[in-house]
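Example 3.2
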Amino acid sequence: GARDLPTTGKQARLLLRNSVSLKQIAEREAIYQRLLVAKSSDDTNLDEMIAEFASNEENAMIPDIRNKLFQVVQGRKSPAALPHLISHAQSGTSPQTATAALKAAEQIATDKDVASLLKIIQFSTHQPVRQGAKLVVASLARRSENREPLEA
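Structure, written as C-alpha cells:
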C-alpha cells in the first residue's frame, strides 16, 4: 500500500475524530490504515498527536477503538508516543486498553522508561497490565543486550 501520505495536523485531527464515531464502522479500518501511513506535511508531530488522542481518556471511545488506535501507534514505532503510552498504562481505567498501550510501547521503550514500567509492575492491581509491563522490560532487555548494560 501507500507509504508516507502527506497529512496536515488538521487532517489528522479530523481522521482521529472520525475514527471514534460509531457511525463510521465501514470506514474505520480505512482510517486506521490512513493514520498508519500518514506523514506530517506541516510542523505537526503526528506520532505524538495520535498517541495523545488514544491515551487521553477525556476522548470518549469504546475500548476496541482505543486498542485499534494503540495498534496504529505501535505500527508507527515512534519514540514520541512513549510518554502518552506509559501514562495511559499507569492511569488508564481499563486494564484492556492499558495493556494495549504497553504492547504499543514494547518495541520503542528505552532505558528511561524502566522506572515507570517497574512501578506499573509493582502497583498495578491488574495481572494483564503487570504482565504487559514485564513484556516491555523483557523486550527492552533483549534490545539492550546489543548495547551497554541497563542502567538502573
